[in-house]
């Protein structure tokens, strides 16, 4: 770790954190995620944004973002949470995993503080979301676990204005901070990156079990709406055996109503030797999930109207038609029941769908400053 990395710059913040303790040898141990980084004075954790300054663990990215954008909620992806509405999305820099296949590596692997060029208080973000007509704010692009304090403060400011909060995360977090974090989240899409310890250890630098623990916690101990995403990488996590094991675990431990998204990999970051995921692989994964009792299984990152749409698990009729991020059919009543057979579709729905469409609009928060 070089001295430039250890120095907290003027473009960073010094924000106090809670989840750490001092070891017998004088180092500070971060207790936010299962990586348990042990840091000498001036050192940063693997996430890059949590650092030992003055023998205290501080967050250096509080109040700063790598950018803001208004997206369709389906882009998170969330298909059963306020369909058709817009969401104000932002992230910071860094990550507490080291995925060799990272599709957002320019943000999550950033070690340049210029990435954190856009500054905004939680109150400003909430006000901007309200003025833009967004129903929710999403903590995404990199993992909100590492900017825990900032994400919670933003969520609280948003809730005061009736705006919901969405976490897009890998779920790699310790029990105590996890409990605090999800008290403030209305929905989460968790990356279940694979269903083998070998994959997690070799390709992410993490472990599988803490992620499974997070999924069980969210589903059974919170009111947070949960959906899952798995990026299928040819030859790594796309075998029939692994997909059967994963989807059977989901149904047994989380229930049949948790939506699963199987998305397409493209060569990136440190994994340039693998080909893009064939569409047939995503369709096969969706079929295996449905075979094992997953009621809502989707394909992603490809154009597949059938794989993107929502169907009634009872009568098979289409409930929500999707063409990329555009909604077509809408056959749910005001209570989220199928108009054909009356069966309840799991999710958080409004009486009618939003009409945001597929628009993606970059936003500059300074335009909303008082």
Give an overview of the whole structure:
The chain has helices at 3-6, 105-108, 122-131, 148-160, 175-182, 197-204, 209-221, 240-253, 279-291, 305-308; strands at residues 15-16, 20-22, 28-30, 38-39, 50-52, 57-59, 64-65, 67-72, 86-91, 118-119, 136-139, 164-169, 187-191, 225-232, 260-264, 297-300, 310-311, 318-323, 326-330, 361-363. The chain is an alpha/beta fold and 370 residues long. α3 (122-131) packs across α4 and α8 (240-253) crosses α9 (279-291). The longest helix is centred in the middle third of the chain and has 14 residues, at 240-253. The radius of gyration is 20 Å and the shape is globular. The protein starts with a helix and ends in a 7-residue tail after the last strand. The model is unreliable at 1-5 (pLDDT under 50).
Task: Walk me through the topology.
Blueprint: H1 3-6, E1 15-16, E2 20-22, E3 28-30, E4 38-39, E5 50-52, E6 57-59, E7 64-65, E8 67-72, E9 86-91, H2 105-108, E10 118-119, H3 122-131, E11 136-139, H4 148-160, E12 164-169, H5 175-182, E13 187-191, H6 197-204, H7 209-221, E14 225-232, H8 240-253, E15 260-264, H9 279-291, E16 297-300, H10 305-308, E17 310-311, E18 318-323, E19 326-330, E20 361-363
Can you describe this structure in just a few lines?
The chain is α/β, with parallel strands linked by helices and 370 residues long.
Strand ordering within the main sheet: 16-15-14-13-12-11-9-8-20
The total count of strands amounts to 20
Strand content: 15-25%
Biggest sheet record: 9 strands, mixed
What is the 3D form?
globular
CATH C-level of the largest domain: Alpha Beta
Number of domains: 2
Main structural class = alpha/beta
Task: Report the total helices.
Answer: 10
CATH architecture of the largest domain: Alpha-Beta Barrel
User: What oligomeric state do the depicted chains represent?
Assistant: single chain
Q: Percent helix among the residues?
A: 10-25%
Q: What is the end-to-end distance?
A: 40 Å
The value of Rg in angstroms is: 20 Å
**CATH topology (level 3) name of the largest domain:** TIM Barrel
Looking at CATH, the homologous superfamily of the largest domain is Aldolase class I
Task: Return residue spans where pLDDT drops below 50 for at least 5 consecutive residues.
Answer: 1-5
């Amino acid at each position: 770790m070089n001295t430039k990395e250890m120095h907290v710059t003027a473009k960073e913040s010094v924000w106090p954190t809670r989840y750490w303790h001092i070891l017998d040898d004088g180092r500070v141990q971060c207790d936010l995620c299962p990586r348990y980084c042990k840091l000498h004075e001036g050192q940063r954790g693997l996430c890059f944004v949590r650092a030992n300054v003055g023998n205290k663990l501080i967050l250096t990215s509080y109040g700063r973002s790598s950018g803001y954008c208004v997206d369709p909620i389906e882009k998170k992806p969330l298909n059963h949470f306020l369909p058709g509405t817009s969401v104000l999305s932002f992230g910071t820099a860094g990550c507490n995993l080291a995925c060799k296949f990272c599709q957002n590596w320019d943000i999550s692997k950033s070690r340049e503080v210029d990435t954190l060029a856009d500054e905004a208080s939680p109150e400003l973000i909430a006000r901007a979301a309200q003025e833009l007509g967004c129903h929710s704010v999403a903590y995404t692009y990199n993992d909100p676990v590492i900017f825990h304090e900032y994400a919670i403060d933003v969520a609280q400011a948003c809730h005061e204005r009736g705006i919901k909060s969405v976490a897009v995360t890998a779920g790699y977090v310790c029990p105590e901070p996890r409990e605090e974090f999800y008290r403030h989240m209305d929905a989460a899409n968790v990356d279940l990156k694979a269903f083998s310890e070998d994959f997690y250890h070799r390709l992410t630098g993490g472990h599988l079990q803490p992620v499974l623990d997070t999924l069980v916690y969210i589903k059974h101990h919170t009111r947070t709406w949960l959906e899952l995403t798995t990026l299928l990488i040819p030859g790594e996590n796309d075998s029939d055996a692994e997909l059967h094991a994963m989807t059977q675990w989901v149904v047994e431990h989380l229930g049949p109503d948790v939506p699963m998204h199987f998305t397409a990999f493209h060569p990136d970051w440190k994994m340039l030797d693998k080909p893009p995921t064939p569409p047939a692989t995503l369709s096969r994964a969706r079929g295996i999930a449905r075979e094992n009792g997953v009621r809502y299984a989707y394909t992603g990152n490809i154009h597949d109207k059938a794989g993107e749409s929502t169907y009634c698990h009872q009568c098979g009729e289409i409930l929500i038609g999707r063409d990329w991020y555009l909604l077509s059919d809408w056959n749910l009543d005001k209570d989220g029941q199928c108009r054909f057979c009356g069966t309840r579709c799991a999710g958080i729905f409004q009486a009618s769908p939003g009409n945001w469409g597929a628009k993606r609009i970059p936003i500059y928060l300074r335009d909303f400053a008082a």
